[in-house]
Amino acid sequence: MSKKQSIAPDGMGAIIHKNGVHFRVWAPNAEAVYVTGGFNKWSETADPLERDENGYWAGTVAKAKANDEYKYVIVNGEQKLQRIDPYARQVTNSVGNSIIYANNYDWEGDNFQIAPWHELIIYEMHIGTFNSMKRNKPGNLRDAISRFPYLQKLGVNTVEIMPITEFPGGRSWGYNPSSIFAVESDYGGPDALKDFVKAAHQHGLAVILDVVYNHMGPSDLDLWRFDGWYENEGGGIYFYNDGRATTPWGATRPDYGRSEVRQYLRDNALMWLDEYHIDGLRWDSTIYMRNVIGQDNAKASDIPEAWALMQWINEEIKAHFPGRISIAEDLQQNPWLTKPTSEGGAAFDAQWDSAFVHPVRTALITDDDAFRDLDAVAGAIATIYNGDAFDRVIYTESHDEVANGRARLPEDINPGDAGSWFAQKRSVLGAVLVFTAPGIPMIFQGQEFLEDEWFRDDAPLDWAKQKEFTGILRIYRDLIHLRRNHDDNTRGLCGHFVQVHHIDQERKVIAFVRWDDKGNEHGTVVIVNMADATYQDYAVGLPAEGVWHTRFNSDGAVYNLNWGNEGVAAVEAQPAKDGALPFYGVIEIGPYSALILSRDPA
């Protein structure tokens, strides 16, 4: 390999260009680095790389080409280490070889733009279980594509996929990444992900990808002691080699203070948005990035360089990919996550909100109506961070909430009989709150047809329930349409403003109004009965005069012929002598039921 051949484009990993393939890797403690592969009959010495002053090794191999397998051979003293390329876009498997990937996918016609935050409806999906087409094998990205017409009809406009980077074996949640630049081989590899994204866009679906930067591995991890150096029994150049390395998943927290590691994570985040046209990122457990022990108020355990890294990457996203969304799973209700960097914030666009899911699930699961805490529910509805209703993602089910000993919501409501009247009625109340409270609503795969199987990576989604619970599926579809204001009569649900104006702790009825900048007189009123009782001639406040039409009644016979069909088609507002709102209406409402009211647009 001549010096002339080693001159090649900028970048890391294996880069195809006119003179062959240029390889570049960071190994500051190596004494020598070689690239070995099918192009040199796996010789460990035929193609040495040259070192620069910063500990990077690079060179061009003229015979190498797309789809060739390769590895780096790193020599450090008596150690001779074969390593997968940290920047490999494709690998044979988590303990196999890197593959030279030709990044020449045809994106022609893909000019998709993710919807504004106030219009987003997220559907969380696990590729391995979402649509498994072959018995005893995980589903893959192309299997999932065949369900896009279903999701489009359901009305969601965003899919969030759990991590799809290469992990050990063929089944995993994905939160144990082996190679963060490579797409899981059992899911179809990089081109399958690009097919998935392009097809999603063609069906009006944005794609958000889960990324894991709080730890790596810990198994099948070639980054571990990558170039042979380590100290304190630590993981070497990519990781902290002291107490900061420790996480609940192993001692593999990346060294956020090391410039090369920061660059590595930054390059990864931007790669998904650039090369794969991903519309946003959801960062796994950012609390375990920014704090060693995962506690918001444990200042002594904070990792300031992690906060600075999040700020840098989020600013890079805003600068280079405006309109893409960045979401933190932090679950600490910390408003600084979504403040701009100019104020010291981390500049995320939204965060998963534990202030919603936990009180709402608790209220729905509680057996005795008398113990349902409507004040806690009111707090969950009204929580807003930094004056922006869409700074948070709200849900009653996610992969974390329905796994590891925790059940799906209908199963939690009525253990052993998730299809019962109680489980259906109360879980629907959860859906009503998700789609009407301020925030970006999210549901977990199968929630819309009462899937009761707790989530695990070897249990495919039971699509038979789609036909068994058609009424529940229709409820979700109708709620989504109302949330997106499809009929131009519930625009209040897209607004920033909320007022919980009615809390009846005795009869367990709560009501609130949502509105946008046109004012609450043009808002949408949501009334939720969290008791096993039917109420007639029940008075509830309304923000304006006129006729308020029922746009949704969860007790309607259209959803289940065995339900009571209690409710009213319309309510005439009357002046109120007192109360939080200037008018009121008299309604009927069924047990464990909800009504959504609005006036016709002027």
What report would you give on this structure?
Strand 21 and strand 22 form a beta hairpin. The N terminus is likely disordered. The protein has 602 residues and is α/β, with parallel strands linked by helices. The protein has an 8-stranded parallel β-barrel, surrounded by 4 helices. The chain has 14 helices and 28 strands. The N and C termini lie far apart (75 Å). Helix content is 22%, strand content 23%. Among the domains are: 97 residues, Immunoglobulins (Immunoglobulin-like, Sandwich), CATH 2.60.40; 100 residues, Golgi alpha-mannosidase II (Immunoglobulin-like, Sandwich), CATH 2.60.40.1180.
Rg over CA atoms, rounded to whole Å, is 27 Å
The side-by-side strand order for the widest beta sheet comes to 10-11-14-15-16-17-18-19
Q: Approximately what portion of the residues adopt beta-strand conformation?
A: 15-25%
CATH homologous superfamily heading of the domain at 499-598: Golgi alpha-mannosidase II
Mean pLDDT: 96
> pLDDT below 50 for ≥5 consecutive residues: which ranges?
1-9
In total, how many beta strands? 28
CATH class of the domain at 499-598: Mainly Beta
